[in-house]
């Protein structure tokens, strides 16, 4: 369809009114259809038509805005273009409309409008006749010489315009081929649709029916386009290749006078910048493999124009390679005595962690090439896992960098992105090395147990190479794509539990358990670190407020139940805020010691506050020291947490381990008439449900030996009886085997009607034969029992070795009963033993307040 003479359009055409542009013969244009008349034309002719004739429509320019369409048809332009609809696409967003792809065929004149609704149809006359151009390429003597000269001149100007463009661009190459293949009469319309012209100018070209007139109108447009390209080329900074730069040289080796232009200055500046980058690359002491890659990228950078997007990517890559600490490291402080003093001053307790760091220093003294260990601190929140990592870095004299891994679900955060992606960047490991500037820092991988999987990969799997001492000497980041040695980095990971860490990753780390603190350790930590820090944060001084150790112990035992010290620090902060208010108000003491002490329990907080300084014999100054009594705590904090008492049969105290530390757990049981069913509540997991069924089966088997009866006095405890077993805190999911002995004791108390000792807690797994098997988390569980004020702990005999980790003063306060079978558990859990006669139901010992 390149020659319009080969086309005969219908004499009647439906008209498509456009306002977005002007369609010229030989060009293609997308038209958005959203007006009522045009949409009806598309539905009636284009979507339902099956023949080629039905897809030929008349495209007529329309100056009226379609948003102001009225019932009356606007005045039609007399000249239009017959077009072939080659594609129709419909959409309902943001409103129903169609998008047409139309190829222009030839011009036509509107002779008569036949109808306006539902879409306009007109009688048209085809204007582009083949006879009009017949002599351009054939040399016909009847063709005027003026038209031939115009067409040749037009062709030459078109060649010049295409020659100014980059022939490597596919569109430009295609345009160059079109100039030789298209007939000369089609060139004005085709080139007009490709260069930058306004719709008004296109409309003038459409109205130019005469070919000579069309050549004359398009020639100035081509000339204007060429002038614009020349101006654009002059404003851009030229970048010539070195072999095309010719600079006159004087004898003395300098430049000839007046020969150094601004362009030369820019080129020299770029050359100096690239040379400086090359010197930095060669002086970075990077390995041979990395150096070869950098020099190759640098060679590409020199041949690359700055306007290319890849130029900035390549330069950023080279600058990162230069900034990485390939051979820069810090010297370790190997003084073990100084390290011990520094660790003790920063952290109280944590003897196992300190001992491991000192062992590393000792081995480093004997062997300098020791690889960095990969440690994993596992413990409840608030015990100082992150802060001890920072202290280790300070002890060794190394740089410290923390990488938070909680919620990370993309492996690219560890390995980086490949440079083929837009916005690619290195992973957190390489970014951390760039930030610290040395290749042997201390990296803290915080919350490694909270990594998650996603469609972007598994970051835990990406850490396998990082945390493997046999592999991390050649860690390859996707962005760098060259190996980097991580063997000198000291990796420390932190986690609350190892249950969610993949086994392969856990196997690569040396796990160090960080259990909770005892009450005595918390008191020391509070007075060494927490209280001074809170006083500083609240603008107070030790001369203005003092918190004695008795008060601190009261806060710990009555107002906090945690393995760490975060809640304790918040309680101390609440006291400091209350004291700060009084100090800022400038109250003066008005009461005497006798008047305040006589009614200590009834006086208000203001009186207690003001009298505290008088009891110490201090002057009642507005800035006087405030001595915090325990009785003041009820005003500065929430009411203390008080535990329950075991006053009914069917209640026992168990010990549980959680990621937040050890906890005591009350197990309750009741029975009622029924058909022998067991009901379990409290969001129990499958393992705890199995432990409950094991306990019932063992008790039914040994009911006669222990004189256990049902509600009717029969020998089978479940005959005609339903049992309900409940674990309080029903909103918390519970699971694990260590509640087995507690369930047996609770049910034995229920069936026998005897009370369990209220100062006893227990833990251990059971079997169907009545054996007690070892469990984990003994230290956390024992500390929880000690915090609760219990006096006796029943645990499996095979867990006796775990008692060595418990502080001596805690072991001195508690009595431990190591058992190997359930008979020993029951004898220890009941006063006088479970086999002996039942004692009278005197009031049981009261469990101390928490």
Automatic annotation (TrEMBL):
GO cellular component annotations of the record: peroxisomal matrix
Family matches, as Pfam families: AAA, Lon_C, Lon_lid, LON_substr_bdg
Domain Lon N-terminal: 13-226
SUPFAM superfamilies with a match to the protein in the record: P-loop containing nucleoside triphosphate hydrolases, PUA domain-like, Ribosomal protein S5 domain 2-like
UniProt keyword annotation of ATP-binding present: yes
GO BP terms in the entry: protein import into peroxisome matrix; protein processing; protein quality control for misfolded or incompletely synthesized proteins
Residue stretches of biased makeup (Acidic residues): 262-274
Domain Lon proteolytic: 646-832
EC number: 3.4.21.-
PROSITE patterns for this protein: LON_N, LON_PROTEOLYTIC, LON_SER
Region (Disordered): 250-274
Sorted UniProt keywords: ATP-binding, Hydrolase, Nucleotide-binding, Peroxisome, Protease, Serine protease
Location of the motif Microbody targeting signal: 848-850
Protein family membership: Belongs to the peptidase S16 family.
The protein's name in its UniProt record: Lon protease homolog 2, peroxisomal
